[in-house]
Write a structure and sequence with these properties.
Blueprint (H helix, E strand, L loop, with lengths): L3 E9 L5 E10 L3 E5 L6 H8 L7 E6 L2 E2 L4 H7 E4 L11 H11 L4 H14 L15 H14 L4 E5 L7 H13 L3 E5 L3 H7 L2 E6 L2 E6 L1 H5 L5 E12 L2 E7 H10 L7 E4 L2 H14 L1
Parallel strand pairs: 3-8, 3-9, 6-7, 7-8
Antiparallel strand pairs: 1-2, 1-4, 4-5, 9-10, 11-12, 11-13
Bound molecules: adenosine-5'-triphosphate and magnesium ion.
Length: 283
């Protein structure tokens, strides 16, 4: 039984936008990640998986439960943090997290204890009793990440959990997610987040999964290659990019007499991402 399984999952919004197009996904790792361009369908997918939105057709299961038929059961075992959510201004981080935990069935005593621990772990120790209005944008985001981490849910969905977080805060969140017992499915635009955290990565584009697997599996087609910037027919923004073997790249640099406009970089998940997008656009 997979953690998340979808079969031909399709979502057409009332205005006719097809956000998910027969999407097939199978996630089985403790921490998995969904990446994809703006508008690819990530939030729509997370909302369907967390039973906030109904699919138009196709199927989706969470740990064997159907997202339509077993909605109530799924809601008991998951915690989902939406992409855009704001705290109540007058309530403190501690009040937010502790109230959420009591709603999930924690005793007040346990809720306060766990909330304090997680808020401290995420670097909000000194701010946990201040009104949320007085916090920075990143601190506000951390309140919701703290809820997910403290929830003790079997499966946690996080839609862009670390948006707007500074590099140290991001490391604190990664550490907390790694230590968690819950399974985690997150979306991110930070490639290094997917690389550092996720055992399984799915790339979605135009409502379909275009590649999925471990980082090593996704990187396989680029094995032995380097990224050459400033040369090649593939245009990303105003930059030309191509992928060549190290030997070819060296020959190219020699040919162009070490032209400074051409630079060579090691490949990473970002390159898998770029290539999956380019392939889709050729269709
Ligand atoms: N409520 C809605 N009504 C109509 N169309 C919508 C609605 N929400 C999203 N869409 C459309 O569905 C598509 C997928 O949007 P979605 O929010 O799922 O993308 P995303 O991958 O989460 O993007 P981002 O990285 O920007 O958060 C887009 O074309 C978007 O315009
Ligand atoms: Mg989104």
């Amino acid at each position: 039984m997979g953690i998340v399984t979808t079969k031909n999952l399709t979502k057409v919004y009332p205005n006719g936008t097809k956000a998910l197009d027969k999407l097939n996904l199978d996630l089985n790792s403790r921490i998995s990640c969904i990446i994809g361009r703006n508008g690819a369908g990530k939030t729509t997918l997370i909302r369907i998986l967390s039973t906030q939105l109904r699919p138009t057709s196709g199927k989706a299961e969470i740990m064997g439960y159907d997202v339509v038929r077993d909605r109530e059961k799924i809601r008991k075992i998951i915690c989902s943090i939406p992409q855009e959510v704001k705290p109540v201004g007058i309530a403190s981080p501690l009040e937010h997290v502790a109230m959420y935990l009591t709603a999930r069935g924690f005793s007040i005593k346990d809720a306060l204890k766990v909330s304090r621990g997680v808020l401290t772990e995420l670097g909000l120790g000194h701010f946990m009793s201040k009104p949320s209005d007085e916090l920075s944008g990143g601190m506000k985001r951390k309140i919701f990440v703290a809820m997910a981490i403290a929830s003790n849910a079997d499966l946690v969905f996080l839609d862009e959990p670390t948006v707007g977080l500074d590099p140290i805060s991001r490391l604190e969140v990664w550490g907390a997610l790694r230590r968690l017992r819950s399974r985690v499915v997150l979306t991110t635009h930070y490639m290094e987040e997917a690389e550092a955290l996720c055992e399984e990565i799915a790339i979605i584009e135009k409502g379909k999964v275009v590649s999925s697997g471990s980082l090593e599996e996704l990187m396989e087609p680029l094995k032995g290659k380097v990224r050459v910037e400033g040369y090649g027919e593939m245009k990303i923004g105003s930059m030309n990019i191509t992928y060549l073997s190290k030997k070819e790249a060296k020959m190219l640099l020699d040919k162009y007499n070490n032209d400074r406009r051409i630079s060579i970089k090691p490949v990473s998940l970002e390159d898998v991402f770029i290539l999956s997008g380019v392939e889709v656009e050729k269709d």
